[in-house]
Write a structure and sequence with these properties.
228 residues, mainly alpha, 4 helices, 0% strand, coiled coil
Length: 228
């Protein structure tokens, strides 16, 4: 059975893909939009909402990555988060270009209406207001992305510091292991030397005992059998 955390990660990824596709579809609608300005404003409002939802899900995925127990799984999820952020930034750029394309189309349509006797002053005023609203929305979204990227850089620096500390700990442990290995080898040599010395001592004791017994037998023989 999948862990709740894994289910949450999967759901986040699915919704990120969903919102990304919806954003792309809305951006394409903006490219195809030829007016009026109210329609463009409505599309931009929808895009802004989808970006907010997308950003929220990416933040949830990033938090889930930080809560992973295994470092390998954590790094994989953080890389996915980074890819999603890059994709969102690319969508922001496409959004801005689509707005420019749409505004050019609307401007061309306004020029055509002007030639047909339209009210130029009213149209310019409406266009400026729409441009101001769109520019404000895009600026706000870009500021949000900039803030997220700044947080990501800070988190990457913290991760690098953690890796450096881990490497230092591993090096210290390796040095300690080498020291212990040298001590073990010295102890092994001492034990081997002790075993050899013990064997030599046993041989000397046996030789001394044999010499002692031979001496005793010789003395007994001379005492009891002097004629032999």
């Amino acid at each position: 059975m999948a862990a709740p955390q894994d289910v949450h990660v999967r759901i986040c990824n699915q919704e990120i893909v969903k919102f990304d596709l919806e954003v792309k579809a809305l951006i394409q609608d903006i490219r195809d939009c030829s007016g009026p300005l109210s329609a463009l404003t409505e599309l931009n409002t929808k895009v802004k909402e989808k970006f907010q939802q997308l950003r929220h899900r990416i933040q949830e995925l990033e938090q889930s990555a930080k809560e992973q127990d295994k470092e390998s799984e954590k790094q994989v999820l953080l890389q996915e988060v980074e890819n999603h952020k890059k994709q969102m930034l690319s969508n922001q750029t496409s959004w801005r270009k689509a707005n420019l394309t749409c505004k050019i189309a609307i401007d061309n349509l306004e020029k055509a209406e002007l030639l047909q006797g339209g009210d130029l002053l009213r149209q310019r005023k409406t266009t400026k207001e729409s441009l101001a609203q769109t520019s404000s929305a895009i600026t706000e979204s870009l500021v949000g992305i900039s803030r997220m990227m700044s947080q990501q850089v800070q988190q990457s620096e913290e991760a690098m510091q953690m890796l450096a500390n881990s490497s230092r700990t591993i090096l210290d442990a390796n040095e300690e292991f080498k020291s212990m290995s040298g001590t073990i080898q010295l102890g092994r040599k001492l034990i081997t030397k002790y075993n050899r010395r013990e064997l030599t001592d046993k041989l000397l004791i046996l030789l001394a005992l044999a010499l002692f017994l031979a001496t005793v037998l010789y003395i007994v023989k001379k005492r009891l059998f002097p004629f032999l």
